[in-house]
Every structure is written in C-alpha cells, then in structure tokens.
Specification:
Length: 275
Amino acid sequence: LARRGIRGVALLTGEYRHGSMRSQMLSRTSQAVRDAIERGFQHILINVGSIEESEYSSLLAGTRQSENDSTAPRITMCTFQETYDPHAYQKFMGNTPENPRADFNRRLRNFDRAAEAGMRSANPGILVGLNPDLAHEILALLDHCHHLSALGMTTYVSLPRLRKANGAEHRAGVGDDEFCRLVAVLSFGLPEAKVVISTRETPTIQQRLLPVISVLTPGSPGVAPYTMENARFEADASQFEVADLRPFEEILGDCIQAGASISGYEPALLPGPLR
C-alpha cells in the first residue's frame, strides 16, 4: 500500500473482554501502528472496538506526542455505534456480559476515553438501515459529533449501508435516493466533519456523492490479508457484498478525473522497496 502511493491506512481487528487474547490483540495493534508510522503513513485509523482507559497507554506506546499532548501523526479511533437506539442495538449485539460489544454505553463513551488518552480524531458511524428510524439515527449522530467537537476532536462520519451479509437470508437497508439524501443532510449539517463512504457503494453512487463527501475509502470492505506482492481479495470473503471490486488506483483515478483533489494519495509515486 505504501509503495502504491497510499498515505492513510486503517487497522481492523477484533475485541475481547478479558484474558490473553485481548492483550495479544492490543499488542499486535500497537505494533501495527508503529509499523505504519515507520512506513510513512500520515493517517492511521484504529478500528478495534472499545478500549478501556487503562489500555490506551499500551495501545499508543511508541507514538510521538505533539505540544498539546495529542498523538502524532494523526491517529483516529474508529468505533461505529452501528445504531443509537438501545433496543435495536441490543437486538443486534445481544446482551450477554461475555460479549464486549453488548454494552451500549461502554461503546458510546469510547471516544471520551480516547480524547483523555490524547487522541484528537474520532470516526463514529452508523450501519444505515439497521434501525428503520433514520431520523432518530441522524439526530443522534449529529448530537454525538457535536459532543466530540466540544472535546476538541476532529470527526469523520462513516455511513456504511446494510446489505446482504455472508450467511444472511435477506437484504436490508435503504434505497439509493434515500441514502444520498442522508449523506447530503449530514454533510451540510456537519460542515466541520468529514463524511466517509466506501466501495460498498457502486461507482455511480460514488460519483453522485463526490461533491458532498470528504473521504472515499477504496477497497475497505474487503477483509482479506495483504502480502508483500498483492492482496487476496475474494468477493465471497468480504464481510458484506462489495459493489466496486476495481483496484483503488482506478477508483481514485475516476475521482481525480472528475475534478476531486485527493490528499493521502500519491498516484505518481515511483515503485520501490517497502521499508
């Protein structure tokens, strides 16, 4: 990814409540952050679920601190609430104490703990269509983002659409027009935030939303391992149906051709060895 000109990378892993698996997960994530910094990535996103206050020092070990005690380079904590309706959340996440995601309030307050640890960038999000009451979700998401801004955090807002997941028997979610209205409302309602869409959306929807979004994450829905040579990217291995399977160079090239300026990507970067 670094050799191909990408300057922002997301680290996605699981979450465990207790025990050695959790400590190993945090240790690996911390090492991956340091590796990404060493390779020159300018923006690192950590999508790791809810972190306890006492764990942030280990997670961020080895990262530089700027004059205001914030992390450098930019490190963003990603914790998608999925839905801000506690009843829909419980139906989706369960209510067993062994499941760390089942605690609605613990997950909701993860960004507050991140801010106390020196992180100044947060990425909340909802799974659009999980809760049919979109008005509730929009208002709650707006309120959450205003709260994060009051904490001094830059906010990215992710809006993945619920689609047919592997193993699921039905489709859910919202239609294209409704989704585009939702993205536009949030874009204009949160001018200081950066609205994010991914390649779960078709090229047509990407181009339609290009004027009102700040971030397009090409290839992000493909949960597959990267090697030194390439990525194993099989459609059936993805968490959800992926609408755009093109290489990210082609996806971002379309955006540049449409007049967008893209930071965090250097398409003319000369090939060279990974450090």
